[in-house]
Amino acid sequence: MAARAPPGDAEAAALDELSQNFTYWVPSPANGSLSAAWYLKNQIHLFGVLLAILGNLVISISLNIQKYSHLRLAHQENPKPYFKSAPWWGGVVLMAAGEAGNFVAYGFAPITLIAPLGCMSVTGSALISVMFLKENLRASDILGMTLAFAGIYLLVNFAPNITQVISARTIQYYFVGWRFLVYVILEIIIFCILLYFHKRRGMKHIVILVTLVSLLASLTVISVKAVAGMITFSVTDKMQLTYPIFYIMFIIMIASCVFQVKFLNQATKLYNTTMVVPVNHIFFTTSAIIAGIIFYQEFLGAAFLTVLIYIFGCFLSFLGVVLVTRNRERDHLPQSYIDFGNIPGKQMLDKIQPDANGLSYGTMPDGSGSTKSPSGEKKEM
C-alpha cells in the first residue's frame, strides 16, 4: 500500500489525489487500435466524442434552419423581423441544444479530443446545405469532407488515452500550479499588446481579432471542462458545487464567452464568413489544445509517434475546413440589380437594371420613366 501523506501536508495530499485521478492505458500486443479491448477501455471517452459529434451536427442543422428562415423572409414582399419567425427560433433552440452537448462532452473526454471535433459543424453544415437548401456540391467540398473525416478518425484513435476525474481539489491544484500561472501571464501580456494595437492604433486585421478570440477561448475551454467535470463528479460520486473554485471557474467561463462573442462579431462585420470561419476554427482549436496540454497535462507520458499522428490528424481537419469554406459565398452572389426599396424616404416601383450598352440607368424612383444623363440633365426614355 502507498504511504499516506503526513497530516497537514496539503500539497502532498493533493498530489496523492491527483495521481489517483489519472488512468493511463498502455497497449499490449493483443490490444490493437480500435479493437474490442480499446472500446472497452475508452467507453467514457467515446461517450464524450459521441456527444460532441452529435452536438456539432445539431449546430450545423440549426445554422441551416436559420439560413433558411432568412432566405424565406428575404423573398417576402413585406418581410417581418427575423426574431418573429418560428423557424429562426427553432434554429436558436437547436443551437442551444448542440452547445449543451459540447459542454457535457468536456466532462467525459479530454479537451485535446473534443475541441478539434468542431470541424464537424462546418463540414456538416456544408453537407446539409447541399441536401436541403439545394446549394452546389463542389469538388473541393467532397475533398474537404474526406480530409476532415480522416482527421477525425486519427484524432479519436490517437488522442490522449487518459481518464481524469475532475474534482474541486484537482482544479485548485492546477489553478495555482506554476505551469498555468506562467501560461496566464504570457496570455495576459499578449492580449494587452494586441488590444492596444486594436483599440489605440485602429488595427482591424483578421489575425489580431481572431487571436484575441482564441486567447479568450483557451480560458473558456479550461473553465468549461472544470465546470462540466465537477458537475459530472457531483452526480456520480461526491458533491463538488460547494467549493468556491466551482463558482470562480463558472464566472471565468461566462466572462470569456461574452468577450469572445464581442471580438468575433467585429471580425464577421469586417470580413467574409468564408474567411472568418476557417481562421477562427484553426486558432480556436490550437489554443484549446495548448490549454488542455498545459492546464490538464493531457499529453503527459504520450509517445512521440502518437503526438505526431495526432498533429497530422489536426492538420487534415484544418485543411478540410479550409477547402469546404473556400470561395463558398462567391457561388451565391446576388443578381446584378440595385434595390432602392429599403432607402428611407424613397418609394420604388421597380428595380433598376444597369444598362451596359448605353447612358441610361433604368427607371428612376419617381416612376416617371425618365433618366438622367451623366451631366445631370433629365431625359425622357
UniProtKB/TrEMBL annotation:
UniProt GO molecular function: magnesium ion transmembrane transporter activity
UniProt entry keywords in alphabetical sequence: Membrane, Transmembrane, Transmembrane helix
Coiled-coil regions listed: none
Gene Ontology terms: cellular component: membrane
Record bears the keyword Lipid metabolism: no
Compartments where found: Membrane
Protein family: Belongs to the NIPA family.
Name of the molecule in the record: NIPA-like protein 2 isoform X1
Highest classification ranks of the organism: Eukaryota, Metazoa, Chordata, Craniata, Vertebrata
